[in-house]
Design a protein that fits this description.
The protein has 211 residues and is an alpha+beta fold. It has eight helices and eight strands, in the order E-E-H-E-E-H-E-E-H-H-H-E-H-H-H-E.
């Protein structure tokens, strides 16, 4: 019968279960390595040093704790080494705020100026900029504001731009319709303070914003 007690391979102290041992190793000996924890199948988070029993739990931890994506690759397409895609390049909250402000100004300022002097031209401008923004979102995963700040929208699981359906229909239009719900817009914005900086519209569309 396998004992539940685990011995630290570095200092010899014994702990009641692997979770307590993991905590001890991280706090007393720093980030884990295969040498510090020789238990078979252990994979370590390169960011915080926590150990995990396989790529699945590690991938979930990376995504939720650090906003990172893990991929496996090999010439045969079967397994391979673990790598990071866009892991350290989540767009900053400040960059996203500035991008949103730029987009707002692009819509509002010319529109109202033209609306005052030539209403027809004002509405034509509004429609034109709306179509152009949708084109940019579909093609590059960016709006004018995001291009200015050099950030873009990508899918969480692949790190790639997923085009019109994801970026325009789901992330923008569907989220806009949901915005009819009172206080939804505020709650959506506040979600950016999550560890992975994903707002509700990102969660709905399965996207994140990277630099």
């Amino acid at each position: 019968m396998e004992t539940r007690f685990q011995r630290c391979p570095q200092c010899g102290k014994t702990y009641d279960g692997p979770n307590l041992l993991d905590y001890h190793q991280r706090e007393a000996h720093g980030p884990g390595t295969p040498e510090s924890d020789p238990r078979p199948g252990r994979i370590f988070c390169s960011t915080c040093g926590l150990p995990f029993d396989g790529e699945g739990p590690l991938s979930h931890h990376k995504r939720e704790a650090h906003g990172e994506i893990l991929v496996t690759s090999s010439p045969s397409g079967r397994g391979g080494t673990v790598g990071r895609v866009g892991a350290a390049y989540l767009a900053g909250r400040g960059s996203r705020l500035v991008a949103a402000i730029v987009d707002g100004l692009v819509y509002v300022v010319p529109f109202f100026i033209l609306l005052f002097f030539a209403p027809v031209l004002g509405w034509l401008y509004f429609v034109a900029i709306l179509v152009f923004q949708m084109y940019l979102l579909s093609k590059d995963g960016q709006t004018i504001g995001k291009k200015v700040m050099d950030i873009r929208i990508v899918k969480v699981d692949t790190g790639e731009n997923r085009g019109f359906v994801t970026n325009v229909l789901v992330r923008t239009i569907l989220n806009g319709l949901i915005g009819i719900i009172p206080l939804y817009g505020l709650i959506d914005i506040l979600f950016i303070f999550r560890g992975d900086k994903r707002c509700i519209h990102d969660l709905i569309a399965g996207t994140k914003v990277v630099a």
